[in-house]
Amino acid sequence: MTESITKEKALEILKTVMDPELHKDLVSLNMIQDLQVNDGKVQFTIELTTPACPLKNKIEGDARKAFEGVPGVKEVEIKMSAKVTQSQQMSEQIDLNIKNIVAVASGKGGVGKSTVAVNLAIALAQTGAKVGIMDADIYGPNVPTMMGVSELPQPRNKKLVPAENYQVKIISIGFLVKMGQPLIWRGPLLHSTIRQFLVDVDWGDLDYLVVDLPPGTGDVQLSLAQHIPVTCGVMVTTPQKVSLEDASRGIEMFNKLNIPIAGVVENMGPMILPDGSKLDVFGEGGGEAMANVYGLPFIGRIPLDPEIRKNGDIGQPIIIAEPQSKPAMVFNELACEVAAFISQMNHKE
Ligand SMILES: Nc1ncnc2c1ncn2[C@@H]1O[C@H](COP(=O)(O)OP(=O)(O)OP(=O)(O)O)[C@@H](O)[C@H]1O
């Protein structure tokens, strides 16, 4: 049987190719975009940190060489492009007093993205930071329910005033639509609403704004993330294969937008039963393995726990309702990881 080349194998190979200036591999540096492997043909784009990269030819040559003699590789097609930092461009366009925007995303619905966003926001606020959460999930804006708020205060000075609970300021698309009433969000309406959520909301000064993106990695999510000056992303997945495949598309979405990823979170891992044994529902470890393949930090494994659902439903996130529980501790560590990632990023700039 002849060996065939897979996307995972191609990524492993690209991980051996170093950027000669940054002394890190191209995958960890998020320089590999649009990787495709079909019938022995490997295609990808190398995105350079600066358009006038003097080492462009060397990087391309090294990447090509890495595939030489690899079984199953028939052809290698490399495109070179240059990075434009979306968030930098946009911050200049909108005058914001928000220091850092963290976008929480998932490849598909129901994996616990909002749960992670809400608990992350509260954990960050509990460290003393000024925090807001923007619920941009047009398909299921459930942040208000999870945060225990149902309406916005009266506007002030022609600006929307966010609701507030657990020291977190809250804005949600859910405040604009009646419960259970579907609303078709066409692109321009969605974008103007999101922009309004940034510009026309009296956020005050914020250290962190956590954004709960709609699930998925299609055009809606892509253009939404493009309309917000995102500092970094957090990818939420469950451990099972289908969810992981969707999550890897999510990682590629962030890469396409040049948004650095603070890490991957695996939610709904094995449930810990009262006798200490584990009940495996969706599996375990898939999120961490995926993070490793993409050279990303793995920043949290949250077990499946009925208390998370119960407390979410009554507007008391687990980090508030049961601060000593295992999931609450994981959320605290997750918040530390995200904050550390951002401070390292800001340090580099
Ligand atoms: N680790 C967990 N253990 C038990 N229940 C959980 C866990 N994580 C999330 N849930 C529950 O699963 C449901 C879906 O979670 P959540 O709304 O956070 O997911 P989502 O990915 O944001 O979904 P959507 O696609 O609707 O945006 C909620 O009822 C939530 O309380």
Strand order of the largest sheet: 6-7-5-8-4-9-10-13
Number of helical elements:
12
**CATH fourth-tier homologous superfamily of the largest domain:** P-loop containing nucleotide triphosphate hydrolases
In N-to-C order, the SSE pattern is HEEHEHEHEHEEHEHEHEEEHEHHH
Percent of residues in β-strands: 15-25%
CATH topology of the largest domain: Rossmann fold
Whole-number total of structural domains? 2
Estimated radius of gyration: 21 Å
Terminal Cα span: 50 Å
How does the helix and strand content classify structurally? Answer: alpha/beta
Largest sheet, described in full? 8 strands, mixed
Q: What is the CATH domain class of the largest domain?
A: Alpha Beta
**Shape, per Cα inertia axes:** globular
Bound small molecules, deduplicated: adenosine-5'-triphosphate
Protein name: Iron-sulfur cluster carrier protein
Subunit structure: Homodimer.
Binding site for ATP: 107-114
Pfam family, one: FeS_assembly_P
Describe the structure.
- The protein is of the alpha/beta class.
- The chain has 2 domains: 7-83, GMP Synthetase, Chain A, domain 3 (2-Layer Sandwich); 88-348, Rossmann fold (3-Layer(aba) Sandwich), CATH 3.40.50.
- Helix content is 36%, strand content 22%.
- The chain contains 12 helices and 13 strands.
- It has helices spanning 7-14, 56-66, 86-93, 113-126, 143-147, 187-199, 219-226, 241-256, 286-293, 306-313, 318-321, 326-348, and strands at residues 32-38, 41-48, 75-82, 98-106, 131-135, 163-165, 168-172, 206-212, 232-237, 261-269, 271-272, 278-279, 298-303.
- The strands form 3 sheets. Strands 6-7-5-8-4-9-10-13 form an 8-stranded mixed beta sheet, sandwiched between helices.
- Strand 11 (271-272) and strand 12 form a beta hairpin.
- Helix 4 (113-126) crosses helix 12 (326-348).
- The termini are far apart.
- Adenosine-5'-triphosphate binds next to helix 4, strand 10 and helix 10.
- It holds the Pfam family ParA.
- Residues 7-78 form the MIP18 family-like domain.
- GO terms for molecular function: 4 iron, 4 sulfur cluster binding; ATP binding; ATP hydrolysis activity; ATP-dependent FeS chaperone activity; metal ion binding.
- Belongs to the Mrp/NBP35 ATP-binding proteins family. In the N-terminal section; belongs to the MIP18 family.
